[in-house]
Design a protein that fits this description.
binds iron/sulfur cluster, three-stranded antiparallel sheet, alpha+beta, single chain, two-stranded antiparallel sheet, Alpha-Beta Plaits, 200 residues
Length: 200
C-alpha cells in the first residue's frame, strides 16, 4: 500500500459528501416506487363490477415459480360473476413463491390480472402469505355492483370494446347502462365519489 492510497480513499469519502443522499427513511417515510413497479397482484373488474378473470389458468401455466392456483367455474344466467362462460371460482397466489417477474400478467388474455405498487406484504406467518381471491379482487368502485349479477354492459364483445372507456367516463352510472358509452343525462350521484384508477 502506497502513501497515497489512504488519501485516495478519503477523496472518495469527501466527494460522496456532496452528492445527493440516497438513503431512504423507511418505514417512517416510505418512498413511492416507480409507476410500473411489480407489487402485489390485483384481480380487476369490469365497469359494472363483473370480474375480468375467466378462470382460464393461463397465468398459472405461465408462472415459473408455480405460485398461482386457479380453479374455474361455470357462469349461469342466475349466477354470473364474469362476462362469458367461465369465471375464476378459486384464485390464490402464494407470495412465499412469487418472484415478481410479471409473466402471469403478460399471459392473461383479459387483463384481469395486474400488479399494484403495494410492496409492504412481508409477514411472519406462512399461511397469511397465501393470498386468496377475496384479498386479490379489486374493490368495488363508483358504478360497480358486487357479482353475481347479469351483464349490464351488453354482449361479451361490448365489455372488451367499451369497458375501458366506461371506466374512465365520469357520467357512468351503476346499473341499467346502455350497451354503448352514450352520454348519460346528469343526475344526483347516489354513490360517494371514488378514484377510478388501477382497475383496467
Ligand atoms: S409475478 Fe411471476 S412468480 Fe409471481 S405469480 Fe406472477 S408469474 Fe408467478
Ligand atoms: S387472471 Fe387472467 S390468465 Fe389468470 S385465470 Fe384469470 S383470466 Fe386467466
Amino acid at each position: 500500500m502506497s502513501f497515497l492510497d489512504p488519501v485516495k480513499g478519503f477523496g472518495v469519502t469527501f466527494a460522496t459528501m456532496f452528492k445527493p443522499v440516497v438513503t431512504e427513511d423507511y418505514p417512517r417515510r416510505p418512498e413511492q416506487p416507480a409507476a410500473r413497479y411489480h407489487g402485489r397482484h390485483q384481480l380487476n373488474r369490469h365497469p359494472d363490477g363483473l370480474e375480468k378473470c375467466v378462470g382460464c389458468e393461463l397465468c398459472a401455466w405461465a408462472c415459473p415459480a408455480d405460485a398461482i392456483f386457479v380453479e374455474g367455474g361455470d357462469n349461469t344466467e342466475e349466477e354470473r360473476f364474469s362476462p362469458g362462460e367461465r369465471y375464476g371460482k378459486d384464485y390464490q397466489i402464494n407470495y412465499l413463491r412469487c418472484i415478481g417477474c410479471g409473466l402471469c400478467i403478460e399471459a392473461c388474455p383479459t387483463r384481469a390480472l395486474s400488479m399494484t405498487n403495494e410492496y409492504e406484504i412481508a409477514d411472519d406467518d406462512r399461511q397469511r402469505l397465501i393470498y386468496t381471491k377475496d384479498m386479490l379482487l379489486a374493490p368495488l368502485e363508483r358504478g360497480m355492483e358486487a357479482p353475481p349479477h347479469p351483464m349490464r354492459l351488453g354482449s361479451t364483445q361490448d365489455y372488451y370494446n367499451f369497458g375501458p372507456q366506461l371506466l374512465a367516463d365520469p357520467t357512468f352510472r351503476p346499473s341499467g347502462v346502455p350497451a354503448h358509452p352514450a352520454p348519460v343525462p346528469p343526475g344526483p350521484d347516489p354513490l360517494p365519489a371514488a378514484g377510478l384508477g388501477g382497475a383496467r
